[in-house]
Amino acid sequence: MTSNRIQYTLLGIAVIFALVYLFPLYWMYVTALKSGTEIFAIPPTFVPNEPNWGVFGYVWEVRGMGKFLWNSLVIATGTMIITAGLGTGCAYVLARYRNVWIDVALFLILMLQVLPASLMITPLFVGFSQIGLLNTPRFAVILAVSAKAMPFFVILVRATFMAVPGELEEAALVDGNSRVGAFVSIVLPLAKNGVLVSAILIFMQAFGEFVYSKSIIQDVNLQPASVGLNAFMGPNTIEWNNIMAYATIYVTPILAAFVLLQQRIVAGLTSGALK
Amino acid sequence: MTSPLQIELKAVNKYYGNFHALKNIDLAVPSGTFVALVGPSGCGKSTLLRSLAGLEETSGGKMEIAGVDVTDMPPRKRDVAMVFQSYALYPHMTVAQNLTYSLRIQKVAKAELRAAAEKVAASIGLTELLDRYPRELSGGQRQRVAMGRAIIRNPKVFLFDEPLSNLDASLRVQMRKEIRALHDRLGATTVYVTHDQIEAMTMADHVVVLRAGVIEQQASPMTLYERPTSKFVAGFIGSPAMNFIEGKICDNGTSVMLEMAGAPKLDIVQKVTPNMPVTVGIRPEHIRVAPSEECDFSLPVTLIETTGTMSYVSLGTAPELSLMLTDRTVFSVGDNIGLVVDKARIHLFDPKTEQAIT
Amino acid sequence: MRRIMMSVVDGKGFDLILVGAALIFLFLFSGLPLLYNILMSFQEVDMFSLGKFFRPFVGLDNYRALLSQPAFWPIMWNTIVFVTCSIGGQFLVGFSLALFFNLNFVGSTFIRGLFLVSWVMPGLVVGAIWNWILAGDFGVLNYFLENLGIIDEKIFWRSDINYSLWAVIITNIWLGTAFNMILLSVGLAGIPEDVYEAAELDGANAIQRLWTITLPMMRSTIGAVVSLGLIFTLQQFDLFAAITSGGPANSSNVAQYWAWELSFRQYDFAKGAAISTLMIFFVMFAAIVYVRSTKHEVRG
After folding, report:
1. CB-CB neighbors (< 8 A) of B76 in chain C
2. Which residues of A touch B (CB under 8 A)?
3. Which of A261, B298, C170, C265 has the smallest number of CB atoms closer than 10 Å to its CB?
4. In this structure, is residue A275 part of a structural domain?
């Protein structure tokens, strides 16, 4: 009995913690639904008086969000394809062997992971401008973001491959398969979940990417939603309900995907980051 | 042994960095033979098996399977099948898919696949389990699937890597018989790695004892038991292990004086250089209890362990002697009992080289 | 040719291709820019020489010019304050929450996971939300603080030079807490229950158990979390862009934002490269600490 009561008390405290922590998220949704005058009410209202559902359609139209989100989607998809395409095989090899060369490669990859994007953008921008990549700015951003995301992806996916017993691949080799065949038919299917979750994480990160897009993409028609949001927030803006509506449209799909995949993402993250 | 050689290894060497894992291994296995590779852990037996499968690259020497040089061939071209210690069943495939994996790689027609799987399953009692996944099987069933996966291909050589070490004791005894029966039925050539000398002795036609990357001795099980060429093999084969007592050959060269309480003398059948120091090896089963007037020597009992069918008795200290009795013991700890040694079965070793004196 | 094909299908060639493709890509778009950055920091770069491969060398002039800027030392100090306070705040809140959720009550795993939503949100959205929460006149944070009696008059978080850096720090603590908590939870879960039971039988109370069992056994995890925090904090850019833009009067400017400003606001790519080079060496130092602490993890 008492232990049950303790359990539920703890659960209650945990819910309160979560509510406090997630308040900013709630505030985004609530502000979006308020009218232009209600957002400046004193004291602030915590439930909108007259929820203005039309705001989403309005902001979508006025800010041209379809175009922005499409560009975000293009950049995120491209990044995911390049990162997963090149990173999966690399992670597999780094998981399969244990020697000095592997340690060196892992160390180099870790070093590249820690480089801040805002510091790397200067040489990337100058270099891209010299080889003409700025003419295809979204592609240039995809390349830059992939290079930034790949080390993280490799480290996460390597942990997944390490969990696949080496004997399974050896059995496939003895059973008459080639290295390529054993990788595709045995190792990859068994690591599928980890690879997918990591790819989704990369997609989410790239979907919110800002520094590279802001610096490289000058043409408004090719900019992603993060740059669009930045442009929306002038220094003296008062359109906070509209800005929050923009943020809501931008972030809700990501949040939905996260809540659906929460357990897998958390498990994948914890297994990779500390090993 | 007139049948053609199925496996032939010539001067095979393997290095891991500076570690010399296999040293000049020569091995010839006639077709249809069951060979056991046995030795303590780290002796190179698994490395040798994996080299044969093509999973390890060798550093030198030549390997032939059925007359074909396979030294530089990838595993898939060697036509060998292997049963792993962990079974290595593909967890995302059903039993039937596991069994037919190798056939599917060879692009065997779909219709034949199921028939082949059913035939193999019937032969090793898996028929009911064809559509299950490995995680739904017991240890023994997994073991059978792993074997089925090897059988279905009809390979040139079967390789087993400690296949029974994950099973409990009673199942291990049963599978031992089944694997041997299977080998005979298929007329296969088998190489079987184990650290358990009982498995090697009971199953194999030919036992290879490895130690630190070197073949200590290879022979039939009974030859190993009766004529071990080194103290290592003598101590490794047989359970409980052989007793070793330091001693010295007497002036006459036909008896040995043991370095123990009372300095007893034993007659030996072979002729040895007088006054030579020797290590005397006596198996526990070759010592009898005898009345004090006819015994070779007597020792106090220090420990009696009884299993019901057998009693293991420890006697004396430094050196301690163990012996094995099938009849009920009539003495207890502390008693001084007389012992008789079977003179024809005394083994003598050079204490320096540890090689047998013949 | 056949030998190469065979190696690709059956041997080491397969491994080399897989690793090689990724490493070449990383070299082209990460390693090469890194080297190029160092090169540029010793060159004269302006809008006209941007497209040229050969530019005049100026030695350490860019670094000298940076150091002589009045903003240099304040910005470096801001960077240190930002990094230490962010890491400290994230760690304290994260560790407390991790300890709490380690009590393993019903639903603890699920609720703990919910905290991670902050981590998957685009940085710019987080910045926008907090920008609004931190607003001076109508911000909800000021409303809470006033009602709780903590402050008497409104704080203009974003425009007061005494508070602008703290506006970003508060947001960054919120952003990084969840990640800290999850990693620390993993470390806590790795301590076997029987160690605590043994300590309890030996007469240690809860606080003594925290100091004598939990913290020492978590040492390598804590090392990893703090150095990861350092790495992530030095990567933080979006929050500055979304909340203060480094202002007012550089009061909330930090090195990583300044580097971008020099290059893309003042088009002084050489100075941008110089400050980037300085910071990159610092980040690499943090990375080496991190690698060492995870190595320890494997052995321990």
Report:
1. 10
2. 165, 167-168, 170-179, 181, 186, 189-190
3. C265
4. no
Instruction: State the CATH number of the domain containing residue A199.
Output: 1.10.3720.10
For A5, list phi and psi in degrees, rounded to 5: -65, -40
CB contact under 8 A, C29 and A233: no
What total number of domains does chain C contain? Answer: 1
Output the domain CATH number for residue C160: 1.10.3720.10
Of all residues in chain A, the one with the smallest CA distance to B16 is: A99
Query: pLDDT by residue (tens digit) across A108-141?
Result: 887 887 788 888 898 999 899 888 899 999 999 9
For chain B, 358 residues long, give each residue's pLDDT as a single digit of tens: 456 889 999 999 999 888 999 999 999 999 999 999 999 988 999 999 999 999 999 999 999 999 999 999 999 999 999 999 999 999 999 999 999 999 999 899 988 999 999 999 998 888 999 999 999 999 889 999 999 999 998 899 999 999 998 888 888 999 999 999 999 999 989 999 999 999 999 999 999 999 999 999 999 999 999 999 999 999 999 888 999 999 999 888 888 988 887 788 888 888 888 889 999 999 999 998 888 888 888 889 999 988 888 889 998 877 889 998 887 777 888 888 888 999 889 999 999 999 998 7
User: Does any domain span residue A274?
Assistant: no
* Residues A228, A204 share a domain: yes
Residues A81 and A24 in one domain: no
**B90: nearest CA in chain A?**
A168
Contact status of A101 with chain C (Cβ, < 8 Å): no
ipTM value of the model?
Answer: 0.89
What is the enclosing helix (H) or strand (E) of B236? helix B231-236
Q: What does the pLDDT look like over C93-127, one tens digit per residue?
A: 999 999 999 888 888 888 888 888 888 899 999 99
Nearest CB neighbour to A174, from listed B82, B91, B92 = B82
Q: Which residues of B touch C3 (CB under 8 A)?
A: none
Check CB contact under 8 Å for C143 and A43.
yes
255-284 of C, contacting A, C-beta below 8 A:
256-257, 259-260, 263-264, 269, 272-273, 275-276, 279-280, 283-284
Residues A18, A95 within the same domain? no
Residue ranges making up the domain that contains C207: 65-299
A215 and A132 inside one domain? yes
List of chain A residues whose C-beta atoms are within 8 Å of the C-beta of residue C83: none
Task: List pLDDT tens digits, range C177-209.
Answer: 988 998 888 888 888 888 888 888 888 888 888
Q: Does C14 touch chain B (CB under 8 A)?
A: no
C16 inside domain: no
Question: Are the Cβ atoms of C224 and A150 closer than 8 angstroms?
Answer: no
Q: Is A169 within the bounds of a domain?
A: yes
Domain extent at residue A3: 1-52
